[in-house]
Amino acid sequence: xxxxxxxxxxxxxxxxxxxxxxxxxxxxxxxxxxxxxxxxxxxxxxxxxxxxxxxxxxxxxxxxxxxxxxxxxxxxxxxxxxxxxxxxxxxxxxxxxxxxxxxxxxxxxxxxxxxxxxxxxxxxxxxxxxxxxxxxxxxxxxxxxxxxxxxxxxxxxxxxxxxxxxxxxxxxxxxxxxxxxxxxxxxxxxxxxxxxxxxxxx
Length: 202
Hints:
Elements: H1 9-27, H2 34-41, H3 55-79, H4 85-100, H5 104-112, H6 119-146, H7 154-166, H8 168-171, H9 180-195
Helix pairs in contact: 1-2, 1-3, 1-5, 3-4, 3-6, 4-6, 4-7, 4-9, 6-7
C-alpha cells in the first residue's frame, strides 16, 4: 500500500497521530499494532518509521502535544486576566471545560495510558501535568493569601478541581437537558463553594 496520493510529510505525520489517537483510545495502547495504524492511515507499515521510531514514541508524542497545547492556551489566557483570584478561578473553570470538551480520546489516553509510558517519557509528561496543576495552585494560594478563598489544602484542591472539570468531557453529549453554558454555571457554583469553604489553611 503506497502513501496516499497528494499527501505530504506533515499531513501524513498529522494523520498518523490522529489515527493512533483513535485506535489507542478505542482498543488500548497494548492491543494496537503499528500495522493497524498504518492501515488506518493508508500507508505501508514500514513507512510509519519515517515519522516515528516506534509505538512508544508515538504514544509520548500524542500526550506531549496535548499537554503543550493545554499549557500554551491557558498561559495565553492567564496573561489577559487581572489579579483577582476569583476572576482567575472562574475563567479557569470555563477554559478547562471548553478546552477538553471535544478531546475525549486525548483525555482518555492522557489518563489511562500513562502506565504504558517508559519511565523517562512518564517523567517528562508528569512534569508538564504538574506545571498545569501548579498554575491552578498559584491561583488558589493567591486566593487564600488575599482572604478571597478559604481552602484547607490548595494542592489537593487543585487536583480535585481538575478531576471534576475534566469529567465533563466523559459524559457531555450536547443533546441533553442542560446547555453547555448552564453546565458551566453549575460547575462554577460548585468551584466557588469549594474555594470558599472554611478550615485551617495550608
